[in-house]
Amino acid sequence: MMPPRTASSTSLAIVRRLRFCAGHRLLGHEGKCACLHGHNYRVDVEVAAAGGGADVDAVGRIVDFAIVKRRLLGWLDAHWDHGFVLFADDAAAIAAVRLATPTKYFLLPWNPSAENMARYLLEVVCPAVFADLGVVARQVTVWETDDACAVAALAGPPAPPPVPLGAAVVIDPR
């Protein structure tokens, strides 16, 4: 049995690391990232109780790590893994990817930089997949390589998503 908790200024959070593979390109990039290419991405998502502070369940958890994995990795697997994450305004890349079948791609409302992918996960995907858990994603880090990442973090209370949740396009005539 856990001793009773007293008022505290402690803030608790958990971080779950997830991995997926995807291709993209950065429209307008001045270097090689303007070409279609891929990464073995790593995503770190920091989750806290929606009420903040040190709220935990009877087991002592904010939320079970397995639930975070199942919800967010499930979304990543269905929509981004082994597909292309493309800017919705990048007609040439969309046309190129559609030439190959089977194919899978996701149209992001912004150029798919690591920064914009982290932002989309934090502001759009996490609120949808964690909606009924009483938690909020406070920060999402998207790693393109072992040495380079982008971080999106809430700067205040969560706001409504800036764009609707998208879905992958899969073309598989097999």
Overall strand count: 7
- The CATH superfamily is known as 6-pyruvoyl tetrahydropterin synthase/QueD
- Approximately how much helix is present in the residues? 10-25%
Number of continuous helical runs: 3
Order of helices and strands: EEHEHEHEEE
Mean pLDDT: 94
**Total tally of structural domains:** 1
CATH class identity: Alpha Beta
Low-confidence regions: none
Give me the side-by-side strand order of the main sheet. 6-5-2-1-3-4-7
Structural class: alpha/beta
Give the DSSP E fraction (strand runs of 2 or more residues): 25-35%
Distance between the termini: 56 Å
The multimeric state of the shown protein is single chain
Main β sheet profile: 7 strands, mixed
Shape: elongated
* CATH hierarchy: architecture: 2-Layer Sandwich
- Computed CA radius of gyration, to the nearest angstrom: 18 Å
What keywords describe this structure?
alpha/beta, Tetrahydropterin Synthase, Chain A, 174 residues, 23% helix, seven-stranded mixed beta sheet, elongated
Verbal overview:
This protein has one domain (14-171): Tetrahydropterin Synthase, Chain A. The radius of gyration is 18 Å and the shape is elongated. The mean pLDDT is 94. It has helices spanning 65-79, 91-99, 114-129, and strands spanning 14-24, 37-49, 83-87, 103-108, 135-143, 149-153, 169-171. A hairpin with a 5-residue loop joins strand 5 (135-143) and strand 6 (149-153). Helices cover 23% and strands 30% of the residues. It is of the alpha/beta class and 174 residues long. 29% of the residues are buried. The protein is built from three helices and seven strands.
